[in-house]
Write a structure and sequence with these properties.
The chain has 488 residues and is an alpha+beta fold. The chain folds into two domains: 15-159, no CATH class; 165-487, no CATH class. The chain is built from eleven helices and 16 strands. Strands 1, 2, 5, 9 and 16 form a five-stranded antiparallel β-sheet that branches. This is Putative Flp pilus-assembly TadG-like N-terminal domain-containing protein. Keywords: Membrane, Transmembrane, Transmembrane helix.
């Protein structure tokens, strides 16, 4: 072949460009594969971080062992296998921090000021996963440096409860700062029979605060009174924070006392409305016309005092609340508000039913007043007239006109759900003074039993604690709704 023909021959002309381009194409292909593998690994690791944070956050209910349970949940969670990681094993947590809150901007780093080791204040958990090695195909082939060699992820999740059908009342936690927790004490029968002056006459928890919450629905005193009277208060509260309603609201007795078949003032026209129905058992030591009775005995004196002889009784108060005495149970935030649990069951039962104490109850083996109330209902004793008093009283509603078929224990109108807060911590933060205290965390929600009507001149709400309304329990149905969510 001549030189001219050789130079004019175009056969195989693509070989040289291809020889130059092939390494570039192969490198690009390896980068695409590496990018997909890295993306899948990052997704797998982030999914694990999210799952670990959510598992830990679900335990942050403010109880003393919340952080302990959260750590256990994070450690025990079935963890994802890393896909396309350089080594085997599973993705677990390398670092865990508990937080009281978050900066307002997601772009702001979470500083140490937000960290806490207090289970009562731990609202969120931040989980950082263990690094998972990444083996780059391109880096190995090309000897490249500076490419990712490991992948880690971080997630922040929080827990909150929403409480509905809550009456806008609160009390201070009597066990704040003590070795006994509220959650332990609430299961003790001796505590359950201690009488509580939940909103005491003329007594303030802090300047302007008498024991009311801002209503979950509506505003001001009228909304508070409506929530005290109605069977299912509107709106819901977040456990992460409630706000206090200042002022000693007038006419709250008119609202609360519809539960005792007493209709007056703005609620005098509500006696036929099932939403304002009374309890099925309204025995309270009152006598007189069915729709205008008055208290027959002096609840501030002993049931055996001469002024109370021969008179029908309501459920008596604890001994330390009688005859001008002082109750001393609990810390400074509740001093004088919680009784000694010693109430005269025997005189109440004898005066009302003529003797024959049930269930082995006596003044040395006292039940709670709520136990007695439920026993009366379960055995239809509220239908009986007082046996051992000159004036007679029935415990059946007489003023309500809505009809017997609408009287119901769903819910029990002698009980209500209220908030329990750590008042010492709130006071230290300036949250119990006036109306500018802001949001106060709720330690727990409790179900309380009204032991007697509210005296409009006295203004005290007398109650026993029946139980704590804890998430996941039967008592929480229709009340507590848990929420666990990712924040970062």
């Amino acid at each position: 072949m001549s030189l001219r023909r050789l130079l004019a021959d175009e056969g195989g002309s693509i070989a040289i460009p291809m020889a130059v381009a092939l390494p570039v194409i192969a490198a690009a292909a390896m980068l695409v594969v590496d990018g997909g593998r890295l993306f899948n690994l990052q997704t797998s690791v982030q999914t694990s971080a999210d799952a670990l944070a959510l598992a830990g956050a679900a335990e942050l209910d403010g109880k003393p062992d919340a952080i302990q349970r959260s750590n256990a949940a994070i450690a025990a969670l079935v963890r994802n296998d890393p896909r396309f990681g350089a080594a085997g094993g599973r993705i677990g947590a390398q670092g865990v921090r508990y937080l009281t809150g978050l900066p307002t901007s997601d772009a702001t780093a979470i500083g140490s000021a937000y960290q806490t080791t207090d289970p009562a204040r731990a609202a969120l958990v931040e989980v950082t996963t263990q690094p998972v090695g990444f083996g780059s195909v391109f880096a190995k082939a090309a000897g490249a440096v500076g490419l990712p060699t490991a992948v880690s992820a971080k997630a922040v999740a929080g827990f909150d409860s929403v409480a509905c059908n809550v009456t806008p009342l609160f009390m201070c936690n009597p066990f704040e700062g003590s070795s006994t927790t509220l959650f332990t004490a609430a299961r003790d029968p001796s505590f359950k029979r201690r009488l509580i002056a939940m909103k005491a006459k003329g007594s303030q928890y802090g300047a302007g605060n008498y024991g009311y919450l801002q209503p979950a629905y509506g505003t001001g005193g009228s909304a508070v009174k409506e929530s005290l009277a109605v069977d299912r208060p509107k709106g819901c509260y977040r456990q992460s924070g409630v706000e206090l309603q200042t002022g000693n609201i007038s006419s709250t007795a008119e609202a609360l006392n519809v539960r005792f078949d007493l209709y007056s003032g703005n609620f005098s026209g509500s006696r036929g409305d099932p939403s304002y129905r009374p309890a099925q058992n309204v025995r309270k030591g009152f006598t007189g016309p069915s729709c205008n009775p008055s208290v027959a005995y002096d609840p501030t004196q002993s049931p055996t005092a001469s002024a109370n002889l021969g008179k029908p009784l309501g459920l008596p108060r604890d001994t330390c609340f009688l005859d001008g005495r002082t109750c001393t149970y609990g810390g400074s935030a509740v001093a004088g508000r919680i009784g000694d649990g010693d109430w005269d069951f025997e005189t109440y039962w004898t005066r009302t039913y003529g003797g024959g104490f049930p269930n082995g109850w006596s003044n040395t083996n006292r039940p709670s007043r709520y136990d007695v109330y439920r026993y009366e209902l379960d055995n239809d004793l509220q239908l009986r007239l007082t046996a051992g008093a000159s004036a007679k009283e029935s415990g059946a509603p007489a003023c309500y006109t809505g009809g017997p078929s609408t009287l119901s224990d769903d819910p029990d109108r002698r009980t209500f759900v209220g908030a329990i807060i750590d008042c010492a911590a709130a006071a230290a933060a300036g949250q119990l003074t006036g109306s500018s205290g802001g949001v106060i965390p709720v330690t727990a929600y409790g179900r309380f039993f009204l032991t007697e009507p509210m005296d409009k001149n006295d203004g005290t709400i007398w109650a026993e604690m029946v139980e704590l309304v804890e998430p996941g329990t039967a008592s929480a149905r229709g009340i507590i709704r848990d929420s666990v969510e990712l924040y970062r």
